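Posted in: Protein Modeling Q&A

I'm a second-year student putting together a small comparison for a lab meeting, and my supervisor asked me to include a predicted structure for cysteine desulfurase. I've never done this before, so apologies if this is the wrong subforum. The sequence is pasted below exactly as I got it from our records. If anyone can share the structure token output, I'd also love a short note on what stands out.
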Amino acid sequence: MLRLPIYLDHCATTACDERVVAEMLPYFTRYYGNASSRNHAFGWKAQAAVEEAQQRVAALIGAEPGEIIFTSGATESCNLALRGISTLYAGTGNHIITAKTEHKAVLDTCKDLERNGMEITWLDVGPNGQVDLQELRSAIKPATILIAIMWANNETGVVMPVHEIGDIAREHQVLFFSDATQAAGKLPVDVKAAGLGIMAFSSHKLYGPKGTGALYISRRHPRVKLAAQITGGGQQNNIRSGTLNVPGIVGFGKAAAICREVMSDEAVRLGALRNKLEEGLLQLPEVYINGYGSERLPHVCNASFGYLSSNEILSALNKDIALSSGSACTSGSLDPSYVLKAMQVPDLLARATVRFSLGRQTTGEEIPLVIRQVTHTIEALRNSSPAWLLRD
Ligand SMILES: Cc1ncc(COP(=O)(O)O)c(C=O)c1O
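Accepted answer (user: helix_wrangler)
Welcome! Here is the predicted structure, written out as tokens:
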């Protein structure tokens, strides 16, 4: 049975898996101890649960449990990483290399650091959405303390050449940080193989609860240190003080364990559905898939529909299908996405973009319906658009 509306906005967030919720529940009402309480069984139980979650989350990304600290989400993790490293390594250098297509959690933090005296190199990307490795190499200088490049883009799903970037970072002995929020739990992520010193990710993108994230901090080769940004009780090795969100952390752990089990089959299934969706959309004239031909997350499709606007498409569809434009909404008008701009997508097309992101609950039945609905909507909108009717 098809249930409307169909949810195709899994890059924004995912439903918490019911197995995750079941595992979290006792930690609200029965095992409610503070994980820092060392003198009684309530505290020990909470601490044991946090340690198990650390193991599960670490296993998802090829890290050691002691290399995981928990945060409130990837935004916080990115902030802790960028600010913590800039502060601690200030004596060594003041230069960070990042890319123009990063999520705002990295972009705006880097802009803030720039205002405070850091030098930031903003790498361009090609039309394929990826940074040029030669440009990256040329940008490295003696003052470079960090390369910050995301694993996979949240708008287009384009995957960066992370392993090659890791090799370059190692070669130049520069620390490598990646925002892997969209990749973790979806693609094989191995922090050691990728040469990462530090990595941010989030629970709610991988079928865990909202409000919980993680930061991987390498302990060996390299041993990474951060200046604490949140001070207080000294929890989590003094890096991130504050009472641990035990139910959220337990949920994140369970979600990570499930992803490890199902991730590779899920990627194949969703990749096939995404390809079917794209085939269907491409039957329409003037449709462009952004990032097509690049390595992409298997569940993401970012499509531009010529002669229309994202707003009108989304408004016409939102009763039946939950989608997103993938670009920021300012003062009621949709700005063209900075990610698509950086990929040299013309403004008019960038303003006519819709992101379809599939997920664990997406069924094979839904895709033909989505294709039919979108096709019908695009045709109807174009048939009442002077720009379309008067085109050459
Ligand atoms: C690539 C990327 N980084 C960071 C974030 C922020 O994550 P959180 O919602 O956990 O703060 C998101 C969420 O949309 C994202 O897609």
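A couple of things worth pointing out for your meeting: The chain has 13 helices and 14 strands. The chain has two domains: 6-12+263-389, 18-258.
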